[in-house]
Design brief:
The structure is a homodimer of 462-residue chains.
Chain A: H1 2-7, E1 9-11, H2 14-22, E2 26-27, E3 33-35, H3 38-46, E4 51-54, E5 63-66, E6 71-74, E7 80-83, E8 87-90, H4 93-105, E9 111-112, H5 127-138, E10 142-143, H6 150-163, H7 168-173, E11 178-183, E12 188-189, H8 191-202, E13 206-211, E14 214-215, H9 223-244, E15 250-253, E16 257-259, E17 266-267, H10 271-286, E18 291-294, H11 304-319, E19 324-329, E20 331-332, E21 337-339, H12 340-356, H13 364-367, H14 369-375, H15 385-388, H16 391-394, H17 406-411, H18 417-431, H19 439-454
Parallel strand pairs in A: 1-12, 6-9, 6-19, 7-21, 9-10, 11-13, 13-15, 14-16, 15-18, 18-19
Antiparallel strand pairs in A: 1-3, 2-3, 4-5, 7-8, 16-17, 20-21
Helix pairs in contact in A: 3-9, 4-5, 5-6, 5-19, 6-8, 6-19, 8-9, 9-10, 10-11, 11-12, 12-18
Chain lengths: 462, 462
């Protein structure tokens, strides 16, 4: 609050500053800095809903952000992609589509948080049209739109509306999609991000505001300082969005981690990341906002380091009750690469986390005193009626773990986890089924893409 | 309590039953079953200390079991050992010694919970003498003795006493070592375990009682049932030990996990294991006892599965505040193999967990509002005074993580985590330094081993 009041946040968007000035904020005429007092911030943030229901084109895929709910999205926005067979390569449409197919297949993936890999082979002006077309046809789950220019944002909202067969009024009646914007830390919100965020808010679509506060680089080296800055940057923008549309669906985004102080490289899944994430959850609940965190790591291949860093990130999300888990499956290299094998490994971890959150029954039947009496000191529970009646569903059954003994595992070729994940994603892609879409809707969506392509798409010079 | 009262626990040790009978428990004359009422159990358990301080031969290595403290021990008792160079092989003295050297080197390892690998090449009658000699000379940390027969237990206590240069009275004045016994679930304590436990308790040395309650096999398929049985088996034995010596140092041990219902193979680090472990922590605190849990997995090599299962086990220990973490470093294959690389990987995870538990400062300096003001919206924190004054100690610095970018990593040979761990443990073994021992003490210890060897060691026919 002292940062918002005394230091201020830069809003590099004249329209945004004008809205804030009219609401009584202190706006300098010669700098983009805006200062707002704590009562104003708290009042605006209190207008934001505590939970938000988002309805994608298939309403059976409806997702709730907030409260006790957790939603997982695939890795978003890496420029590179890799698998064990083809190695690491620049992002391209084929891999982009295959990753979307996996996002559709895995039940533990609830939304697409951006391009699972950047399809760099598509021309930048029209890439968003093709990429959104793929996303809206290859999956029927909740999607995200990048706030990277007016045309892209308007195109995305229009395509989501068309894909769901909605009128403009129906589209605005409820959140159907979302965007995520990052502040340009320290203390700055850029024009494209603010423009996109306001456009989403105006039409009742959800905006996550995630400051990019790497401790020691774009934020203080102390966790408390980095989190204070994260919170100030986030809340100042959320206040703006509540002025744009009171009650607009928004979320508190956290991404605070540390950098390697020897190289300046970002690190994730570290002890600092875990604590920053857990405290962010406490902050989000204090402000009664849905909260976004991430499953991140800084490893270069899907090996133990990638796994312990991701596991630490996910346990932070789990213990702190993250509502929106970005990059939940497939992230490597601090976000510079999407790994097909890591998608599968992460989905296994996500399913295990979900199973872990199932409550433990303590009924008389669960306590099993009669079964213990029946089996007695010389018996075995495998054959007991109590076991036989429950064994099929008693335990979570993993799809990627190999629990065979060493000899059996060795006879089977000593196949390690990453190779098993490789075999599994290839089989899943073979079995992939396109989610249904009404032919008229598909035609309208295709026509929209072609019309916008013919018009040149979006400018690429900002 | 209903299990202790109504069903009873089998104590396969006449002396133990006699002690319990004299204390008023219901002891059948024709079966080994003992029933005890809940008031008796609670009264005896209340005599046990809530925290126990254990002093090994080097008092600077003193460890506290209980309260807010966590202590980590290396993997214990696997019959096999592996590393990337030599592959998997039967346990032997050389690897046993090398694992002990690593236990001595890593600061995050506080105790030896048994043989880090079974030195099968040593004759069973005298193996305990050589193994204890190695353990007491290659490390100066807290050690464990197996309760596998009277001679072995007495030899172990005598060797710990000699190694610490203590009189028998000094030895008994405080806990200097510990044993861990497993019940033979369901509902049974075997003779060697009870004999060893009582011998330790009588001389004021700590006993951990850990039921072997794999849910679906040796315990009910329901977690509540398995945990009820675990607790009954544990508390019944702890009550006996409190009769043997009121106030004897003891600990509640938990090991409840599930089996793979398709094969019957034990599984670890599963969602069931995590919940069972967390609930065990609640139970131990309810009974005000130090609590032992484990870092376990069922993978066949140090790969992502081994890592996520271990990470889940360790996060369960961390969130539930386990006091004594058995098998904290090096365990593979559900305990059938000690892996040198896994030792290093686990120690990295242990250090990260320890760093995570450091409190987050929230002083005015930590909140860094002045630093945020000074850096402003166009600056960078790397060069800020606030950062420069703190960067050396601000973040945990891992020894095994590779945070270089992909290109640098690739140029360096794309070395994955397990291979980095391999290089590191070899370097550490090269740098190992024997902890000092008084020459007279070493002579006395050697003489004891030779005397007992000449006498034939321990019988091997039980």
């Amino acid at each position: 609050m002292r940062i918002c009041e005394e230091i201020g946040i830069d809003f590099l968007h004249e329209g945004a500053r004008e809205i804030l000035r009219k609401a009584g904020c202190e706006v300098d005429s010669d700098t983009p800095t805006v200062r707002m007092d704590r009562d104003f911030v708290m009042e605006q943030v209190a207008n934001a809903p505590e939970t938000v229901t988002l309805i994608p084109r298939n309403p059976q895929r409806t997702v709730v952000f907030g409260g006790p709910w957790a939603a997982f999205g695939q890795v978003a926005s890496p420029p590179n992609v890799s698998d064990l067979d083809g190695g690491r390569r620049t992002g391209n449409r084929k891999d982009y589509q295959d990753l979307l197919r996996l996002a559709q297949i895995f039940n533990c993936i609830h939304f697409t948080g951006g391009h699972p890999v950047e399809p760099v082979d598509l021309h930048a002006s029209t890439r968003h049209l093709d990429a959104l077309f793929d996303m809206l046809t290859l999956t029927d789950k909740l999607i995200h739109a990048y706030s990277l220019g007016t045309e892209r944002v308007e195109d995305a909202m229009e395509m989501v509306r068309i894909a769901a067969g909605l009128t403009p009024e129906e589209f605005e009646a409820a959140p159907r999609m979302f965007t995520n914007i990052n502040s340009s830390s320290p203390l700055k919100h850029d024009w494209p991000m603010l423009d996109g965020a306001m456009r989403h808010a105006r039409r009742n679509q959800l905006v996550i505001v995630t400051p990019f506060t790497l401790s020691g680089a774009m934020a203080p080296v102390t966790l408390a300082g980095a989190l204070a800055q994260q919170t100030a940057e986030c809340l100042a923008c959320l206040a703006l969005l509540q002025l744009v549309r009171p009650g607009a669906p928004v979320a508190y985004g956290s991404f605070t981690s540390n950098v390697d102080m020897r190289s300046g490289a970002p690190a994730f899944g570290t002890p600092e990341y875990v604590r920053a994430t857990q405290i962010s959850g406490q902050l989000a609940r204090y402000y009664r906002l849905p909260w976004r965190a991430s499953n991140a790591n800084a490893a270069n291949c899907p090996d133990p380091q990638a796994t312990w860093e991701s596991a630490a990130s996910l346990w932070a999300c789990s213990t702190a009750r993250a509502n929106i888990v970005y990059h939940a499956a497939g992230w490597l290299e601090g976000g510079l690469c999407a790994s097909f094998e890591k998608v599968v490994i992460d989905c296994e971890m996500l399913q295990q986390l979900a199973a872990y959150h199932q409550p433990v029954g303590v009924s008389e039947d669960d306590l099993a005193v009669e079964a213990i009496r029946e089996v007695g000191p010389s018996g075995h529970f495998l054959g007991a009626d109590h076991t036989q009646a429950r064994y099929k569903t008693a335990f979570y059954s993993p799809f990627l773990s190999d629990w065979s003994n060493f000899e059996t595992w060795e006879e089977g070729g000593s196949v390690e986890t990453a190779r098993r994940a490789n075999r599994l994603f290839r089989r899943l892609l073979d079995e992939y089924q396109l989610p249904p879409m009404d032919p008229g809707t598909l035609e309208a969506l295709t026509a929209f893409v072609e019309k916008r392509r013919a018009a040149g798409g979006a400018p690429t010079d900002f």
